[in-house]
Hints:
Distance between the termini: 36 Å
Keywords: Signal
Number of strands: 7
Protein name: DUF547 domain-containing protein
InterPro entries: DUF547 (IPR006869)
Pfam family, one: DUF547
Amino acid sequence: MKQLLFIVSLLFSTLAWSAPKSDLWPYWNQSNEVNSEQISHQNWQQFLDNYLIEQGQNTLVRYKAVNTADKTQLKQYIKRMEQVNPLDYSKAEQYAYWVNLYNAVTVDLILDAYPIKSITKLGGLFSFGPWGDDVVVVNGKSLTLNDIEHRILRPIWQDPRTHYAVNCASLGCPNLQPDAFTSNNTEALLEQAATEFVSSDKGVLVINNKLQLSSIYEWFAVDFGTEKQLIRHLDQYRTQPVMNTQNISYEYDWSLNQAN
């Protein structure tokens, strides 16, 4: 009986997850471009400085090493972000705000559940991960991680590099960047993140004349355009052009991005 329940649960969890569409939440598509004030992400930067480590092609989080004080400070940072009205700021400032909030909340969810092997284990019984769960309240509106990524970031900015900016705490995901996003460094960080990912084996891998791409390019194909447009995008960030496009497969590693 237990085995049957496990199989049913696994089936429903797998079927329950599919790449969400970009679906604008109009309320968030407004800004105050005359406001040059910046939102401070110093506490998030401090966390990144203390707990990120590079290992090979991956930037990993030392979840096990995070002390109680820093866990509390991370939660306080998220609470402060909830008290910010992002609509009072410029679009450039908003982009950094949403990316940092998404990444900080994701790390916080992992820390609350740690030790855990994969973020996909979070969420309800029939859920594949926590992306559909309410995680923050901004301007009195409950938001999920899916809301931030697919109803705010993707539809408002329409920049495929957003997929390199938000981090899902998995080895297959583009690396969590060592710098908090700001309105000043966003362009440089997006280019850095894109270059890292496309140049890595988890982004683009050629094996025996076969091309293996990250599943991101399959799940969110609409953001990268036609196959030719995707290849042009990839070639922007590679030293060697992508070949063998007649035989493409997709792969993604959901293992936790934790440092040993």
